[in-house]
Amino acid sequence: MTSRLARAAVSMLVLASAAGAASATVTEYTNQTAYGAATSGSTIFNFDDVTPPGTVSLGDVTLGDLSFSASIPIVVGSGAPLYGGKAFFTSLSATPGIDAAEVLCTLSGTRAIGFIYGDFADGGGLPFTVTLSTGDSFDLSTPFNPGLDTGFIGFVSNTPITSIRFSNNGVGFDVLEVVSSSAGAAGVPEPAPSGLMATGLLALALLSRRRAVKVEIGQQLKTDS
């Protein structure tokens, strides 16, 4: 019986350890209204004040706690005949089809973040991939009217997201706006290790009680005989 209790204790510890290493739950939103309904406390970042209107600048960008880098990082100021004149951050590839055009956004950690994106340099509908620091990866396509239409992609996670990478095999990829939010419900959280430990201790207590009852019954039978 002692060995059975020991095995039960080890099992509970293993379960608690596994719970601590549980993977993140990430919900993807391609509809900005639905994303807004699932989040609160949104802060919107754009590139309007990074580069003067009508000009273009080269280099990485920091907006609040968000940092943007790219294959060839360029900020196009407002007033350009693209996206209704909005400023945007773009990544260009020196060798399209060989080296990907990538935009990397790094941040201190948030449970909800969304992006308005586009592509002015390629034909519409070009596939691209979004990869999160959680290890989750999502495949989408750019809007069909390049330089005019935009798309939205947002994520709500039960663990902090610290990086988002956009990548395609075309000439470029554009980010126009970022919506960083406080996460709403993103599914049922994984059970905490402390909760499993409590369950395990309760199970051990029940096993001990069961063993004590069996011993007591055995002694009573000996006495009666």
In short:
With 225 residues, the chain is α+β, with helices and mostly antiparallel strands. The chain contains 3 helices and 12 strands, in the order αβαβββββββββββα. Strands 1, 2, 3, 4, 5, 6, 7, 8, 9, 10, 11 and 12 form a 12-stranded antiparallel beta sheet that branches.
Structural features, described:
There is one protein chain. The protein is of the alpha+beta class and 225 residues long. The protein has one domain (24-183): Galactose-binding domain-like (Jelly Rolls, Sandwich). It has 3 helices and 12 strands; from the N terminus they run H-E-H-E-E-E-E-E-E-E-E-E-E-E-H. It has helices spanning 2-20, 32-38, 193-224, and strands at residues 26-29, 39-46, 56-58, 61-63, 66-70, 73-76, 88-92, 101-118, 127-132, 137-141, 151-168, 172-183. Strands 1, 2, 3, 4, 5, 6, 7, 8, 9, 10, 11 and 12 form a 12-stranded antiparallel β-sheet that branches. Strand 4 (61-63) and strand 5 form a beta hairpin. Helix 1 (2-20) packs antiparallel against helix 3 (193-224). The longest helix is centred in the last third of the chain and has 32 residues, at 193-224. It starts with a helix and ends with a helix.
